Amino acid sequence: MNSAQLKRAKRAVRAEVLARRDALDPLERAEMGVRIVTRLLDLPELRAAHAVMVFWSFGSEVPMDPLIARLVEAGVTVALPRIADGRLEPRTWRPGEPVTETHFGAHEPEAGRVLDPAELDVVATPGVAFDRAGGRVGYGGGFYDRFLPLTPALRVAVAFGVQLVDAPVPAAPFDLPVDAIVTETETIRCVRD
Known about the structure:
Blueprint: H1 3-22, H2 26-42, H3 44-47, E1 51-53, H4 65-73, E2 77-84, E3 87-92, E4 99-101, E5 107-109, E6 122-125, E7 129-131, E8 136-137, H5 143-147, E9 154-158, E10 164-165, E11 180-182, E12 187-189
Parallel strand pairs: 1-2, 1-6, 6-9, 7-10, 9-11
Antiparallel strand pairs: 2-3, 4-5, 7-8, 11-12
C-alpha cells in the first residue's frame, strides 16, 4: 500500500469509527467511561505507577476527568500532553491549574514541569480506532507515534468498545502499537514486538 492509499484507508477507518463513537448516547457514554476508569485503575501497572500521562478528553472521547481525579487523590504525578515546537511534551498538571484550549478542543497545561519521558510509568493513549493486536489509528498528527519511542511506559489505549475493529488497522512502519486496550467490557493485553 503506497502513502496515498494508506492515508485514504486511515481516513475511511476514522470516519466509520468516529461515526459509531459519536452516535453513543451521552449518558451511556458517561456510564461506560466510569467502567473504563475502574478497569484502568485495576491494572497492576497503574496501581504501581508514580507518573502517568493522560489526555484531555474532547468530543466523544472517554471522559478522563474521573481518572485524573483518582490518580491525583492517590498521589500519582499526572501529566497532560502539550505540543511545543511540533513535538509532544508531558507537563505536570493538577485539576484547577490553568490550561489553554487547542484548535481541536483539547486543553494543554499552561505551566507545569516538563517530565522526562523516561519518568513515565503509563501513557494513557488516545486514538480513534484500535485492533486487538494493539494497532492504532489516531487523529493523524503523528504526535504519539513520535513520542512513544522516547518512553518505556506502558502504552494503554483508552477506548469504548465501538472503537475496536476486527481487521488490522491500516498502518505504516512508524505507526506504533499499544500494549493494552481498556474498554468498558474488557482489558486486552497486546504483544509488542
